């Protein structure tokens, strides 16, 4: 799978409209005072991985490597965002902006 395929998957699972709303509620990434380390995967790629797990029925460990972030990475970010109440804030924002579906 090449980079174009991955971008298509991410954009299909996280359309621009959803991404714009999500950016308004997601907390900023923590900074690492010591620097270095691996690059943190982008929120949109991780969100796409979370949406895939939630809608496909696969486990975090079964997340295809083509998403970029691993299952444990996606699960860790899911947990971080859950503690920050991102999902509740996103739901409220979707209802306020788009109305009931």
Automatic annotation (TrEMBL):
The highest taxon in the source lineage is Bacteria
Q: Note the Pfam families from the entry.
A: DUF4096
According to the entry, every stretch annotated as the Insertion element IS402-like domain falls at: 15-90
Protein's UniProt name: Insertion element IS402-like domain-containing protein
Q: Species name for this entry?
A: Streptomyces vastus
């Amino acid at each position: 799978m090449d980079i174009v395929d991955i971008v298509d998957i991410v954009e299909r699972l996280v359309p621009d409209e959803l991404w714009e709303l999500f950016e308004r509620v997601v907390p900023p990434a923590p900074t690492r005072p010591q620097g270095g380390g691996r690059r943190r995967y982008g929120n949109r790629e991780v969100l796409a991985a979370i949406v895939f797990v939630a809608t496909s029925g696969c486990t975090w460990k079964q997340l295809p490597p083509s998403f970029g972030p691993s299952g444990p990475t996606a699960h860790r970010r899911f947990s971080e965002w859950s503690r920050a109440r991102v999902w509740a804030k996103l739901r409220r924002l979707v209802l306020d902006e788009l109305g009931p579906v």
